[in-house]
Fold this protein.
Amino acid sequence: MAGRVIVITSGKGGVGKTTTSANIGTALAKLGNKVVLIDTDIGLRNLDLLLGLENRIVYTIVDVVEERCKLKQALVKDKKNPNLALLAAAQTRDKTSVNADQLKKICEELKKKNDFVLVDCPAGIEQGFQNAVAGATEAIVVTTPEMSAVRDADRIIGLLESKEEIESYKLLLNRVRPKLIEQNDMMSVDDVKDILSTEIIGVIPEDTGIITSTNKGEPIVNDEDAMAGKAYRNVAQRIMGNDVPLLDLDPKVSFIDKIKNFFMKGKV
Ligand code: ADP
Ligand code: MG
């Protein structure tokens, strides 16, 4: 078995990489895949917190690299889903404690026994990014529909293009607010798609439920009713190659659009 290694990256910080990693990882595991999440970032809201696993960490990725434990020992099993495990980031700010070759080796090892290895990347384009990308052959670029985030995503796409190992990358648009798009106060999905000329793997709405779910240590994909949960479950389906249409985030808007389109077409 050779699993897929996907890096979740962005350029700009705070756009939802860690949220995306936790949710896609959980959703893929719920669909029966064996999944390992690798946290290569140290931030305020680490992957372990989002998964509610912070008290279960004994060894981190640095312990693996420095041979204080075997890779298998450092994998923290998810409480709910035995298919999901986490390789936690070290609680040290020293980014030089792990290098790209070491991360690549860890990914090579993990993909032998897992369907998916998802690497949560730190912000920026420096060492942390280079490390996170090293073992991956696919990437998901997370952005919000703001100019600064889109610009940083564009830079990351340029870097991904220059990496021989990266075979494909797709865009995930996060924190979308249909009402603002309707009022022309936010870039639309098509605007972002056009600027970056990149295929979209998912559109996630702004959802206050994400904040509550983070605090509870339970990814929102476990909430059957939440719109963002559904959007993330759809992303997991698309990663697996299933053709699921993008969510109609605001049925009211699109219904009016449909009527408009109907009349427009009638005129030509
Ligand atoms: P990153 O890993 O890119 O730095 P995070 O995943 O930590 O970003 O998200 C940054 C903040 O934004 C967090 O507080 C998170 O709860 C919030 N957030 C992310 N996505 C959404 C969303 N779709 N709706 C509402 N809040 C979100
Ligand atoms: Mg993060």
